[in-house]
Amino acid sequence: MSGKFITFEGSEGSGKSTQAALVIDYLKSKKLPVVLLREPGGVKISESIRKLLLDLNSAGMGDECETLLYMAARAQMVKEILDPQLRSGKIILCDRFLDSTIAYQGYGNGIDIKTIEQLGLFATKGLVPDLTILFDIKPEKGLSRAGDKKDRIESRSLEYHNRVRNGYLDLAKQYPARIKVIKVDADKEEIFKKVKLYIDALLGL
Question: Sheet harboring 179-183: ordered strands across?
């Protein structure tokens, strides 16, 4: 792989999508070849799976089915965009990746994490981000940012979202060289300054 793969992770309302948008604008201003994706989604098939996963009408979906659908969406995005674009030298920014499944379906729903990791290895063809920025926020604060119109995942209990947050923080302890934690305790411009330090270090800017 000659490109770079950067992922943005965090609980609901952490501001990761806002920061990803700021990063792509920054890198485009540097005339760098950069692509921004989201998970689940990014390509037609994966976006269709996204609608199914987040739809409140999918309330009866089992945890195993949910996990496999996230993996299916990921596998298609890797095949269509991530793998070829990285090989061509692009910088790929992705709003969520495999860490999300470990945090949400593993720590959150109780699916065996080793199983998720094995499925992830298959779905991603072994692709691991060069850098993951984790935006840490207390779930009650993050969920209040999401507003009243919540999707199927956002609508889950505070206890669930606390397990997700703790899962993310556990992952950060396991992979400190890759996962950099930024506390969501300032405005987006101040947070972006911290993000930019990690981006610049990875890309040599």
Answer: 34-38, 91-95, 4-10, 131-136, 179-183
